[in-house]
Amino acid sequence: CGHVEARDLTGYKTELIRENIERSGLTNISAVCRDASLPDPESVGTADIVVADLPCSGLGVLGRKTDLKYKASPEGIKSLVELPRKILSCVKEYVKPGGVLIYSTCTVNPAENIDNVHWLLKQDPEFSLDDISEMLCPELRESVTERGCIQLLPGVHKSDGFFIARFIKRKKQA
Known about the structure:
Blueprint: E1 4-8, H1 11-24, E2 29-33, E3 47-53, H2 68-71, H3 74-91, E4 95-105, H4 114-123, E5 127-129, H5 138-141, E6 144-146, E7 149-152, E8 162-169
Parallel strand pairs: 1-2, 3-4
Antiparallel strand pairs: 4-8, 5-8, 6-7, 7-8
């Protein structure tokens, strides 16, 4: 039986996560308030799976959160390309050899999505994209944009805009 550690930057959101954990009745989940952009040496090499649902511009959810269009700026979006890279630099270290790193955002901006995927692959050759086609329902298989990546689009898919990439960390050679 595994353990899930859900992390968030703010105490407010961490408390909401704790409330959901209590409501679920599950005992193998904990919520931790922690800045993901700062390294956590105790977590290095400990996770079979890391799900990095990272801060983004939210351009994929404009249909539901129309106030975002008034807050968006080119400078703000540029910073939201850099922040996920800073976080990915930390959290990729937590994945065990042979483990999985899932990168996700709720945006349709290629600079925040596929460009960050290519950045990680260039930064760390231990990671490679893992084919996700067979893990998807048949209706979504044709939406795989690149091996290991899917971009959901409002108006095309029955969802908001969302991006997911699945990486595998190479196993150490014996």
